[in-house]
Structure formats: C-alpha cells, structure tokens
Amino acid sequence: MKGKFVFLIILSLLLSCLSFANAAHFKTATSSTYPVHNLDTHLNYTTIQEAIDAPETMKGDTIEVDAGTYYEHVIVDQSITLVGGETETLPSLTVMEEAL
C-alpha cells in the first residue's frame, strides 16, 4: 500500500512538471505581445524568425504577421507561406525549397 502511495506522488509530480513545461512553451497572450502567428500550429511568437525556427513549424505552414515594423533579418530555410494580417502590409509570400 505504501509503495502505491509513493508511486502516485511521484507520478503526480512528473505530470505537474510536464504540464508546467507545456504551459511555458505555448504562448497565449494578446496579439500585441506575440504579433507573429503560426496558423497551422496555433502558436504565437514575438519575432518572424522565432516562428520560422520553431520546431513545431513544418513545411507548408502559414505564418501570419500582424501589421507593424519588424527590425530583424529573416532567414527562411523551409517551404512556408508568410502572410500579413492586413493585405496592405505584407502580401502573401510562399517560399519554396527549390528557391532556397
């Protein structure tokens, strides 16, 4: 009986750690805090490069960028589509691997 109790406590601690790690990984905040969004994974980012480099971003994903000025050098090394939140700010741009 004591062994089962210890096992349940350890299991609870492990699950708590995993859920905390996942909560820290998934960013849920206002659009102004995280203005870059992967529309396929529903994750939000602070920079365009962070969204491109994220391990969850896969070939063919669409990254949407809120209107604004972004001071960063962006390296696109996979096939993705970048779209602006407003069509006046960034037209849709699809980057294919053949062009890389």
Describe it.
- Residues 18-30 have low confidence and may be disordered.
- 30% of the residues lie in helices and 18% in strands.
- The chain has one domain (29-99).
- The protein has a five-stranded mixed beta sheet.
- It is globular, with a radius of gyration of 19 Å.
- It is built from two helices and five strands; from the N terminus they run H-E-E-H-E-E-E.
- By secondary structure, the chain is α+β, with helices and mostly antiparallel strands.
- The gyration radius over C-alpha positions equals 19 Å
Strands across the major sheet, in which order? 2-1-3-4-5
Q: How many beta-strand segments?
A: 5
Largest sheet: 5 strands, mixed
Shape field: globular
Proportion in helices: 25-40%
Overall mean confidence score, pLDDT: 74
In whole angstroms, the N-to-C terminal distance is: 61 Å
Strand-pairing-aware structural class:
alpha+beta
What's the structural domain tally?
A: 1
User: How many distinct helices?
Assistant: 2
Written as H for each helix and E for each strand, in order along the chain, the element string is: HEEHEEE
- Weakly predicted, low-confidence segments: 18-30
Short description:
The protein is of the alpha+beta class. The chain contains two helices and five strands. It has helices at 2-25, 48-53, and strands spanning 36-38, 43-45, 62-65, 80-84, 93-95.
